[in-house]
């Protein structure tokens, strides 16, 4: 079942629950990783307010490689440990950045981005990529976003 904008309550936790249910419905019977990542990025881009980029990077041959996304064209390859995405990969944890201009080594693909959250995606205990979301607003992402985006990434990883 796909939810429409009017189905959302305006309560962040409840609305993330609906998004996660919608993700399951979109990907549960589809084995193709590209199709699933494309739908997942489109779903989040539609759902989240005040974001200018939502997408994925997959970990291949020691670096992150651009995968399906919504937003302006992006950096194609990110080295392990570089930028917010590469740091999340290296540290094996979600990184939430309130002001990207203060993050050492931030990679500016879109000059409008002011804050960012990156969540690793695991499969069989190994990181296979990251979910990356940028916002043109400072301090856009909070603990509720982090917790629910980690749940989103977990659902996604179970169906890739």
UniProtKB/TrEMBL annotation:
Gene3D superfamilies, sorted: 3.30.450.40
CC terms in the record's Gene Ontology section: cytosol
SUPFAM superfamilies found in the cross-reference section: GAF domain-like
Single GO term (MF): L-methionine-(R)-S-oxide reductase activity
Family label: Belongs to the free Met sulfoxide reductase family.
UniProt xrefs under InterPro entries: GAF, GAF-like_dom_sf, Phosphatase_reg/MetRdx
Protein name: GAF domain-containing protein
Superkingdom of origin organism: Bacteria
GAF domain location: 39-157
